[in-house]
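Q: Hi! First time doing this. I have a protein sequence and I read that you can turn it into a structure. Is that right? Here it is:
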Amino acid sequence: MIIWLNGAFGVGKSQTAAELNRRLNGSSRYDPDNVGTLLRKQLPKSLRLDNFQDYPEWRQWNYQLLRKIALQGKQTVIVPEELLEPRYFDEVIGRLRQDQIDVRHYFLTADPETIKKRLKLRGDLHDQFAVTRLKDEQAPLDDVKFAQKIDTSQMTYAEIADFIARDCSLRIQPAIKNKYAQAAVQLGDSFKNLWH
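A: Yes, that's right. Below is the predicted 3D structure, encoded as structure tokens:
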């Protein structure tokens, strides 16, 4: 099974993925942006694009890697990645589904103030790319294909993980009850995401 966490930049995909991965035995986290980083490092400047997803190779390689992991890895794969362009969606998620791979697609939403608060906690609010993405993603997203929408504005990452696990009929370990311990774990996850 693949659990795909979609949604706007800063909505909490990476933190939710880390929470799910930590609490779900036999799961792995897959970051499609690593393929983009590889492409950007290897391609000459004249061939570089601003958005990883615009590379046909990004879509093909992520599809192929996810297919291999899903079919041969025998584990739940958690993918935190915004994927809104319909053609790109079809080339990755659509093809995985055509291969009879169980892709559970969740679209995380939050009000703009919550997203700004989360970006500020991450230290990304002054990042020009982050701010641009935040402005670009305020358009209606009702046409996101086959997604279970989750409004995360009033939810903790542990609550989002609990909801997704229940919806997927997966048993996960209990959440950390102590809010300070949970905050420390989330801070550690944030640092891992920065250097991942």
